[in-house]
Amino acid sequence: INPGNSGGPVLDKEGRVIAIVTAYIEGANNVNFAIRVDAAFKHLKSLAEACDDCLVVRTRVDAPVFVDDALVGKGPRVLLVVTPGHHHVRTQIGSREEAKDVDFPADRDVDFATGVGDATVGASRSERAEQVSVLELPRDLTECEKILPYWIGRSVTVTLADGTSVTGELIEARGIERLGLALPNGERRRIALYDVQRVKRDR
Questions:
Q1: Could you tell me if residue 122 is inside a domain?
Q2: Where are the alpha helices (DSSP H) in 36-140?
Q3: 11, 84, 90, 167: which is deepest, by most CB within 10 A?
Q4: Residues of the chain with pLDDT > 70: what percent?
Q5: At residue 46, does pLDDT exceed 90?
Q6: What's the whole-number average pLDDT of the chain?
Q7: Which structural domain, as residue segments, surrounds residue 38?
Q8: Are residues 29 and 60 in the same domain?
Q9: Which helix (H) or strand (E) holds 201?
Q10: What integer is the mean pLDDT of 105-119?
Q11: SS3 sequence, 158-189?
């Protein structure tokens, strides 16, 4: 595998994609590293949502999304690479049109599905965070982004992919990327969400 092939496919002899190339070590007898394709597919959605150069628009399923009057996709989620500056974003939800002006990259997330920014929605998210006590991953990955910030200061138990668990006070919630715990022994630990099976709120 040559330099520059990172992101390319690893094929078996039948021509099926079995992995994705991630890196190779020069001068180490051509040792290569790849991610199994079944493992990679679990995280493609979260990687797309973490795109640093993307504008994310959330709306209802099949609702059309327009940016600067150009149709760019349909809900529930549209990810766009846009130029820095002012953009007019709108969607058509049934007979109702909703619109928002954004300044990218200061504004990266437009949520028409829940009306983010409205005080009543903030309250409903807070109530939702109190109602939910367990988040299962990867199923609830997008819920983590909405709920975990409300759990900061609470005791949580995190079950890792290897089956072990760790309990501590939640002190950091970085969207769909990672969380941070203050452990009873005084240590602080950051955990990537892709390495988590479950997050349980203890109180």
A1: no
A2: 37-49, 119-131
A3: 90
A4: 80
A5: no
A6: 80
A7: 9-42
A8: no
A9: strand 196-201
A10: 66
A11: EEECCCCEEEEEEEEEECCCEEEEECCCCCEE
* CATH number of the domain that residue 176 is part of: 2.30.30.100
Domain count, the chain: 3
CB 32 within 8 A of CB 24: yes
d(CA 164, CA 170): 17
Tokens representing 52 are 């640093």
Q: Give residue 123's pLDDT.
A: 41
Burial of 106 from C-beta contacts in 10 A (0-12 / 13-18 / 19+):
exposed
> Does 93 lie in the same domain as 35?
no
Is omega for the bond preceding 138 within 30 degrees of 0, making it cis?
yes
Going by their DSSP bridges, the two strands 54-58 and 109-111 should be labelled as parallel
CB atoms within 10 A of CB 137: 21
Contacts by 31-35, CB closer than 8 A, 24 or more apart:
32/1, 34/10
> Domain for residue 3, yes or no?
no
> d(Cα 71, Cα 80) in Å, to the nearest integer?
12
The type of residue at 65 is V
Q: How far apart are CA 179 and CA 184, in angstroms?
A: 16
Alpha-carbon distance of 171 to 152, in angstroms, equals 5
Q: Is residue 28 part of a domain?
A: yes
